[in-house]
Amino acid sequence: WLFSCFSRSVTCHGETARIMELTILFMVLKLTLAVSATIRGPPRADKSEIRHVAKIGDDIKLRCPIHGYPTPMVSWEKDQDTITFAWSRFKTNKRSLKIKSVNKEDMGVYICKGINGFGKAKTRIELVVINPDDFPNILDSDIPKLAPPVFTKETVRTVKDITVNAGESVTLICSAMGLPEPRISWYKNNELYRDTGSTLTIDQSSTRDSGTYSCVAQNMVGSSSAKYRITVEDVTDLTHDAANVSVGVGESAVLDCRVKSDTKPSVKWLKKLENTLPGDSNKVISVGSEHYSIIGDDEDMLQSGEREYLSQLAIRSAHQDDSGMYICFVTSGGKGFNFKQSYLTVIENIGREVEREFPVIVVVLVLAIAITLSLIGLVLCLIQKKPKASHSQPVENGDIQQKELLQQNLIRKNNKSNPAENVGVRVTVNKLEEMLGENSPLGSVNRDHLHSTYLMPHPNAPECHDEHLQPVYEMPRAQYGYYTARDSSEKSFNR
């Protein structure tokens, strides 16, 4: 019905129809909002972050922009502490927070949270409390407009990671808006580099300019920072060949300096002065306590390969005064510099030095050979003695064992001999006992000192024959001799 009426009004009444059209659209929009407000769902926040500025002593009211259906329950926090009724100057009322007589301690971040049965939402509110005395040029009507620094779009879109070749210029942009106007400061590797200026320009950059640069925009309300990373590449590269050269007096020396560069570099040769300065002070460079003599520029540098150049310093008829450290100093079209050290040693007479050192070398070699031969001889002697010692011991042990076995065999054979022989043995033993009577010179000897009787072969008898075995009674030989009872008529006594 509304749309049919609207079409008829357009054809009949002109401007009246337009007014009616706007009225109908407004009613439809309001109806749509009312329907959407009754749709159940989680809470929604109109803004995620809000900044509020207030003067010291003012009474303020912070509103939480969270709504939903069912109506969410709202709670407040400050610096992660929940605001309750115990906070005397703070009062919560549905979706608002009232603070009476704010002061500097009330500054901080407030969080309002809304929750219902379908979900939750939160908004971050930053409260800034200022002292009007700190802003004498700002009207009271402008205080609500105070804002911390915000970087411009140009600053935000600027490339933050920059790589350039040595010698090129670098410009960094850092512009910000805020009330009051923010102050810009530049830092390099967290150290103050420049205190003012929204742009930072580095002319004739070198590798020393590489690093992290920070732009800090700050006012009484807040601050913001942006970081840039600059890398300066050195396009000149020196190839370090043999840096030490030795020549004799009167000979020629050549020092090489190879450079890799996109463009032809400029090379300057220097020599470090040890003691005295040359007469022309214009050709001397002083670096602290060190002094260097400028030899000259190499204008005849040749290109030895792709991006490679060779500079040679030739010293003809060298003298001992030419000895020392030489420096190849390279610059490449304002794109930085590099250097290389070389050392030249001029010997008075190489042949004479060799002759002077030859006797010492010979003596050292002779001593080394003598010591080596002595050690070899000692080792061979030790090796030869060890087998002999180990070989002689088994032989001696073998002889003892062989004698013991022979005695045991002889005793066994004697025990198996006929009775007549055993009787002869006993008779001999009896005679010996009679000699050991009281009237005998041996009577004073304790008989316990006498060893047991054993059988020994006659010296002239064949080996291992029973008929030649004779009983022998052994006595202590330290004081007396020995007695043989082979023939009863034959006696011997030795002292």
Description:
The strands form 9 sheets. This protein has a 6-stranded mixed beta sheet with strand order 21-29-28-23-25-24, with no helix packed on it. Strands 2-10-9-5-6 form a 5-stranded mixed beta sheet, with no helix packed on it. 25% of the residues lie in helices and 37% in strands. It is elongated, with a radius of gyration of 60 Å. A hairpin with a 4-residue loop joins β18 (211-218) and β19 (223-233). The protein starts with a helix and ends in an 11-residue tail after the last strand. With 495 residues, it is α+β, with helices and mostly antiparallel strands. The longest helix has 66 residues, at 350-415. α1 runs antiparallel to α2. It has helices spanning 2-13, 15-37, 153-157, 350-415, 419-435; strands at residues 44-45, 49-55, 60-63, 66-67, 73-78, 81-82, 90-93, 96-99, 108-116, 119-130, 147-151, 161-165, 170-173, 176-179, 183-188, 191-194, 199-202, 211-218, 223-233, 237-239, 244-248, 253-260, 266-273, 284-287, 290-297, 302-305, 308-315, 324-331, 337-347, 454-457, 469-473, 483-484.
